[in-house]
Amino acid sequence: MTLDEKLDYFYQSAINDATIQSSNILESYENSLKEMIAEKKEDLKKQAEQKLRTESGNLVREKNKNLSNEALNIKRTVSEKTREKVDGLFADVKNKLSAYMQTPEYQSFLITKINEAIAFAKDNELIIYINPTDTHLKTALEAATHVETTISNIDFFGGIRCVIPERHILIDNSFMSKLEEEKANFKL
User: Fold this and answer.
1) 128 in a domain, yes or no?
2) Are residues 63 and 112 part of one domain?
């Protein structure tokens, strides 16, 4: 083999060897890049899933907050309307009681309540109070029950209040207290 052939052989061997090494390096680099791309894709996918979960949770919380606020507003509105209706109802009742207080049945009612108080007090001292608006009925009530009545200095809308001082008892048959009691216990 001549020197030129040897040089040519050496050159071809070196080139082949360099080509194989280059090819191996390139393949290794490609594999490394593919692994990096796969890892990066996996990381991005996990980040996207995490962001999706976070945003979904935020949207659910926001929706629940909005629903809660709206439910509270609805309850408040219903409560206001209910209070308006109850107030209107009790205003009507008060008007009907005012009309009732102008009838003869009201005087009979007062007489009945006074007689019940007298029976309850038995032989104890009894102070019977009538409402200032019922002053015109004082004489008729005393004649019917044979008991002295006192005109109250407090307006209790109608009915009677009685006190048995020895027993520290108040008998409250006033319309005001009955209305307040009914309003407090009223449920729709």
Assistant:
1) yes
2) no
Q: Please indicate, yes or no, if residue 124 is contained in any of the structural domains.
A: yes
Residue type, 186: F
Q: Which tokens hold the place of 13? A: 């061997």
Q: What is the pTM of this model?
A: 0.65
Alpha-carbon distance of 89 to 78, in angstroms, equals 16
99-125 pLDDT, tens digit per residue, is 999 999 999 999 999 999 999 999 899
Residue 86 lies in a domain: no
One domain for residues 63 and 106: no
The pair of three-digit structure tokens given for residue 14, joined into one six-digit string: 């070196």
Q: 114-117 long-range contacts, Cβ below 8 Å, gap at least 24? A: 114/141, 114/145, 114/147, 114/149, 114/160, 114/162, 115/145, 117/160, 117/162, 117/171, 117/173
